[in-house]
């Protein structure tokens, strides 16, 4: 991490803490205004995992305001890879773009606006790393759409397995663990992750 990127991550972190405090105080905001960001531990973990890959194509499902994108973009910059990130809300993406430019990593990120489930099927490239962090009922349909695009050795990280957790998270864990060629474990980092690797054959 360089100073420029760290400074932007710190700005996000202030916002993340504020949002958590508002939640604890019972203040509710519409989803369109909420960052719902992964937090620094998960950010660091996805950066470590993605940095271990050679020139990876990294796919992020659920950009929101672009916090996790920065951790992934830093890994892309180091490895000669790139990040494709998908988000429904155009205004969030505009903010994410500005912050990535401030952090100096914008050239490593391609933003795609729309429904990720539909856009996955249009992917032309093989995918080496995936962060699943959109609405939880979409994790299973996203994985179904993703499997034909995964390169051997691809790593998948799914967020929010424990907080908020629930039926959708359990369904995803059962589904990913039952897929041929996928090894998968839960990890108690951040709000609870499922980390999986695609190793067919
Ligand atoms: C938990 S937030 C992502 C947080 C982000 N990964 C971070 O750590 O900064 C989930 C985001 O997924 C987006 N989303 C929900 N359904 C989607 C869909 N079908 N396609 C694309 N994005 C979607 C929401 O608009 C929301 O911004």
UniProtKB/TrEMBL annotation:
<dbReference type="InterPro" id="IPR002935">
    <property type="entry name" value="SAM_O-MeTrfase"/>
</dbReference>
<keyword id="KW-0489">Methyltransferase</keyword>
<dbReference type="GO" id="GO:0032259">
    <property type="term" value="P:methylation"/>
</dbReference>
<protein>
    <submittedName>
        <fullName>O-methyltransferase, family 3</fullName>
    </submittedName>
</protein>
<dbReference type="InterPro" id="IPR029063">
    <property type="entry name" value="SAM-dependent_MTases_sf"/>
</dbReference>
<keyword id="KW-0808">Transferase</keyword>
<dbReference type="Pfam" id="PF01596">
    <property type="entry name" value="Methyltransf_3"/>
</dbReference>
<dbReference type="GO" id="GO:0008171">
    <property type="term" value="F:O-methyltransferase activity"/>
</dbReference>
<keyword id="KW-0949">S-adenosyl-L-methionine</keyword>
């Amino acid at each position: 991490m360089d100073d420029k990127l760290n400074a932007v991550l710190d700005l996000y972190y202030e916002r993340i803490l504020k949002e958590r405090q508002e939640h604890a105080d019972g203040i509710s905001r519409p989803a369109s205004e909420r960052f719902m960001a992964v937090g620094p531990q998960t950010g660091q973990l996805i950066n470590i995992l993605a940095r271990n890959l050679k020139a990876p194509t990294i796919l992020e499902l659920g950009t929101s305001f672009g916090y996790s994108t920065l951790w992934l973009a830093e890994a892309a910059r180091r490895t000669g890879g790139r990040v494709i990130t998908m988000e429904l809300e155009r205004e969030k993406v505009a903010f994410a773009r500005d912050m990535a430019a401030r952090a100096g990593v914008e050239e490593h990120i391609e933003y795609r606006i729309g429904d990720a489930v539909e856009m996955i099927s249009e992917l032309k490239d093989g995918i080496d790393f995936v962060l699943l962090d959109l609405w939880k009922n979409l994790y299973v349909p996203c994985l179904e759409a993703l499997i034909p695009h995964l390169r051997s050795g691809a790593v998948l990280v799914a967020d929010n397995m424990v907080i908020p957790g629930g039926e959708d998270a359990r369904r995803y864990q059962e589904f990913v663990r039952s897929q041929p060629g996928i090894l998968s474990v839960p990890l108690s980092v951040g709000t609870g992750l499922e980390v999986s690797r695609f190793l067919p054959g």
